[in-house]
Amino acid sequence: MTQAKDNIQLSLSHLGIYVQDLEKMSAFYKETFEFTQTDKGDLGHTQLVFLSRDPAEHHQLVLATGRPENLQFNLINQISFRVPNLDNLRRFYERVKKHNEVNDIQCVTHGNAVSIYCRDPEGNRLEIFMDTPWYCDQPLREPIDLELSDEEIMAKAEAIARQYPKFKLRTEWHEEMRKLMGV
Protein backbone atom coordinates (compact mmCIF):
# COMPACT_ATOMS: atom_id res chain seq x y z
CA MET A 1 0.00 0.00 0.00
CA THR A 2 1.30 3.43 -0.88
CA GLN A 3 0.74 6.65 0.95
CA ALA A 4 0.81 9.89 -1.01
CA LYS A 5 1.82 13.42 -0.03
CA ASP A 6 -1.43 14.17 1.81
CA ASN A 7 -1.46 10.77 3.59
CA ILE A 8 -4.21 9.16 1.50
CA GLN A 9 -3.46 5.43 1.27
CA LEU A 10 -4.12 3.54 -1.94
CA SER A 11 -3.14 0.21 -3.49
CA LEU A 12 -4.28 -1.51 -6.66
CA SER A 13 -6.48 -4.45 -5.76
CA HIS A 14 -7.91 -6.14 -8.85
CA LEU A 15 -8.74 -5.86 -12.51
CA GLY A 16 -11.90 -6.79 -14.37
CA ILE A 17 -12.14 -7.56 -18.08
CA TYR A 18 -15.06 -8.27 -20.36
CA VAL A 19 -14.90 -11.59 -22.20
CA GLN A 20 -16.89 -13.33 -24.93
CA ASP A 21 -16.41 -16.93 -23.78
CA LEU A 22 -16.44 -17.00 -19.98
CA GLU A 23 -15.72 -20.71 -19.63
CA LYS A 24 -12.80 -20.73 -22.08
CA MET A 25 -11.21 -17.63 -20.57
CA SER A 26 -11.75 -18.86 -17.02
CA ALA A 27 -10.12 -22.19 -17.89
CA PHE A 28 -7.19 -20.39 -19.54
CA TYR A 29 -6.37 -18.26 -16.49
CA LYS A 30 -6.88 -21.16 -14.07
CA GLU A 31 -4.75 -23.60 -16.09
CA THR A 32 -2.01 -21.31 -17.38
CA PHE A 33 -1.64 -18.89 -14.45
CA GLU A 34 -2.91 -21.18 -11.67
CA PHE A 35 -5.61 -18.79 -10.52
CA THR A 36 -8.20 -20.24 -8.15
CA GLN A 37 -11.84 -19.54 -8.78
CA THR A 38 -13.13 -17.93 -5.57
CA ASP A 39 -16.69 -17.21 -6.73
CA LYS A 40 -18.98 -17.26 -9.74
CA GLY A 41 -22.39 -15.77 -10.27
CA ASP A 42 -24.73 -13.46 -12.12
CA LEU A 43 -25.21 -9.74 -11.63
CA GLY A 44 -28.23 -8.92 -13.71
CA HIS A 45 -27.46 -10.12 -17.23
CA THR A 46 -23.71 -10.27 -16.59
CA GLN A 47 -22.04 -13.51 -15.55
CA LEU A 48 -18.91 -13.10 -13.41
CA VAL A 49 -16.00 -15.34 -12.43
CA PHE A 50 -13.72 -14.18 -9.61
CA LEU A 51 -10.11 -15.41 -9.65
CA SER A 52 -7.22 -15.06 -7.21
CA ARG A 53 -3.74 -16.39 -6.46
CA ASP A 54 -3.63 -14.70 -3.05
CA PRO A 55 -5.67 -16.16 -0.16
CA ALA A 56 -5.94 -12.66 1.36
CA GLU A 57 -7.59 -11.30 -1.83
CA HIS A 58 -11.09 -12.49 -2.73
CA HIS A 59 -10.24 -11.68 -6.33
CA GLN A 60 -7.37 -10.24 -8.30
CA LEU A 61 -8.97 -10.79 -11.69
CA VAL A 62 -12.66 -10.66 -12.60
CA LEU A 63 -13.95 -12.03 -15.89
CA ALA A 64 -17.32 -10.63 -16.96
CA THR A 65 -19.50 -11.53 -19.92
CA GLY A 66 -20.47 -8.78 -22.30
CA ARG A 67 -17.48 -8.23 -24.55
CA PRO A 68 -18.86 -7.38 -28.01
CA GLU A 69 -17.85 -9.58 -30.92
CA ASN A 70 -15.70 -8.22 -33.74
CA LEU A 71 -14.17 -5.35 -31.81
CA GLN A 72 -11.99 -3.23 -34.06
CA PHE A 73 -9.71 -2.27 -31.16
CA ASN A 74 -8.82 -3.88 -27.83
CA LEU A 75 -8.98 -1.29 -25.06
CA ILE A 76 -6.71 -3.37 -22.82
CA ASN A 77 -3.10 -2.43 -23.47
CA GLN A 78 -1.78 -5.24 -21.28
CA ILE A 79 -2.27 -7.22 -18.08
CA SER A 80 1.04 -7.77 -16.29
CA PHE A 81 2.06 -10.45 -13.81
CA ARG A 82 5.30 -10.31 -11.79
CA VAL A 83 7.35 -13.44 -11.03
CA PRO A 84 10.27 -13.56 -8.58
CA ASN A 85 12.97 -15.09 -10.78
CA LEU A 86 14.02 -16.45 -14.16
CA ASP A 87 13.07 -20.01 -13.22
CA ASN A 88 9.43 -18.97 -12.77
CA LEU A 89 9.57 -16.87 -15.94
CA ARG A 90 10.80 -19.87 -17.95
CA ARG A 91 8.12 -22.11 -16.45
CA PHE A 92 5.40 -19.69 -17.58
CA TYR A 93 7.10 -19.42 -20.96
CA GLU A 94 6.80 -23.18 -21.39
CA ARG A 95 3.12 -23.03 -20.39
CA VAL A 96 2.16 -20.29 -22.82
CA LYS A 97 4.07 -22.01 -25.65
CA LYS A 98 2.04 -25.19 -25.06
CA HIS A 99 -1.34 -23.45 -25.04
CA ASN A 100 -2.60 -23.64 -28.62
CA GLU A 101 -4.83 -20.54 -28.29
CA VAL A 102 -1.97 -18.27 -27.15
CA ASN A 103 -0.16 -16.31 -29.84
CA ASP A 104 2.24 -13.41 -30.40
CA ILE A 105 4.74 -14.80 -27.87
CA GLN A 106 7.78 -12.54 -27.44
CA CYS A 107 10.65 -12.64 -24.95
CA VAL A 108 12.20 -9.25 -24.29
CA THR A 109 14.17 -7.17 -21.85
CA HIS A 110 13.24 -3.67 -20.81
CA GLY A 111 16.54 -3.31 -18.98
CA ASN A 112 14.61 -2.97 -15.73
CA ALA A 113 12.77 -6.26 -16.37
CA VAL A 114 12.85 -9.46 -18.41
CA SER A 115 9.43 -10.21 -19.88
CA ILE A 116 7.32 -12.61 -21.88
CA TYR A 117 4.51 -11.07 -23.89
CA CYS A 118 1.66 -13.03 -25.43
CA ARG A 119 -2.04 -12.77 -26.28
CA ASP A 120 -4.67 -14.70 -24.35
CA PRO A 121 -7.39 -16.62 -26.26
CA GLU A 122 -9.42 -13.42 -26.82
CA GLY A 123 -6.45 -11.29 -27.87
CA ASN A 124 -5.70 -9.44 -24.62
CA ARG A 125 -1.97 -8.75 -24.32
CA LEU A 126 -0.36 -10.33 -21.27
CA GLU A 127 3.06 -9.70 -19.78
CA ILE A 128 4.82 -12.01 -17.34
CA PHE A 129 7.93 -10.30 -16.03
CA MET A 130 10.79 -10.43 -13.56
CA ASP A 131 12.35 -7.24 -12.22
CA THR A 132 16.07 -6.73 -12.64
CA PRO A 133 18.25 -4.79 -10.17
CA TRP A 134 18.51 -1.85 -12.60
CA TYR A 135 16.56 1.13 -13.83
CA CYS A 136 17.01 2.68 -17.24
CA ASP A 137 15.11 4.99 -19.57
CA GLN A 138 11.76 3.69 -20.76
CA PRO A 139 10.29 2.71 -23.10
CA LEU A 140 12.86 0.09 -24.03
CA ARG A 141 12.17 -3.29 -25.59
CA GLU A 142 14.89 -5.59 -26.91
CA PRO A 143 14.55 -9.31 -27.75
CA ILE A 144 16.13 -11.76 -25.33
CA ASP A 145 16.56 -15.53 -25.52
CA LEU A 146 15.20 -17.38 -22.48
CA GLU A 147 17.16 -20.45 -23.57
CA LEU A 148 20.34 -18.69 -22.39
CA SER A 149 21.66 -19.31 -18.88
CA ASP A 150 20.54 -17.05 -16.04
CA GLU A 151 23.96 -15.39 -16.04
CA GLU A 152 23.84 -14.72 -19.80
CA ILE A 153 20.31 -13.30 -19.64
CA MET A 154 21.14 -10.99 -16.76
CA ALA A 155 24.43 -9.88 -18.38
CA LYS A 156 22.61 -9.07 -21.63
CA ALA A 157 19.81 -7.20 -19.82
CA GLU A 158 22.37 -5.18 -17.85
CA ALA A 159 24.45 -4.40 -20.94
CA ILE A 160 21.37 -3.13 -22.74
CA ALA A 161 20.27 -1.06 -19.73
CA ARG A 162 23.74 0.47 -19.31
CA GLN A 163 23.51 1.94 -22.83
CA TYR A 164 20.93 4.47 -21.62
CA PRO A 165 21.82 7.77 -19.92
CA LYS A 166 19.53 7.32 -16.89
CA PHE A 167 20.93 3.88 -15.96
CA LYS A 168 21.14 3.33 -12.19
CA LEU A 169 20.48 0.72 -9.57
CA ARG A 170 16.80 0.07 -8.92
CA THR A 171 17.33 1.00 -5.25
CA GLU A 172 18.53 4.47 -6.31
CA TRP A 173 15.52 4.88 -8.59
CA HIS A 174 13.16 3.79 -5.77
CA GLU A 175 14.61 6.45 -3.48
CA GLU A 176 14.16 9.11 -6.17
CA MET A 177 10.54 8.03 -6.66
CA ARG A 178 9.84 8.07 -2.90
CA LYS A 179 11.06 11.66 -2.78
CA LEU A 180 9.10 12.61 -5.90
CA MET A 181 5.90 11.07 -4.50
CA GLY A 182 6.46 12.45 -1.03
CA VAL A 183 6.35 9.10 0.72
| SS element count, helices | 4
Uncertain segments are: none
User: N- to C-terminal separation?
Assistant: 11 Å
Number of distinct beta strands: 13
Task: Indicate the radius of gyration in whole angstroms.
Answer: 18 Å
Structural class: alpha+beta
What spatial form do the alpha-carbon principal axes imply? globular
Percentage of helical residues?
25-40%
Secondary-structure map with pairings?
Layout lengths: L1 E2 L5 E2 L4 E5 L2 H12 L2 E8 L2 E7 L8 E5 L13 E4 L3 H13 L4 E7 L3 E7 L5 E7 L2 E2 L6 E2 L6 H13 L5 E2 H12 L2
Parallel strand pairs: 3-6, 7-10
Antiparallel strand pairs: 1-2, 4-5, 5-6, 8-9, 8-12, 9-10, 11-13
In short:
The chain has 183 residues and is of the alpha+beta class. The protein has helices at residues 22-33, 86-98, 150-162, 170-181; strands at residues 2-3, 9-10, 15-19, 36-43, 46-52, 61-65, 79-82, 103-109, 113-119, 125-131, 134-135, 142-143, 168-169.
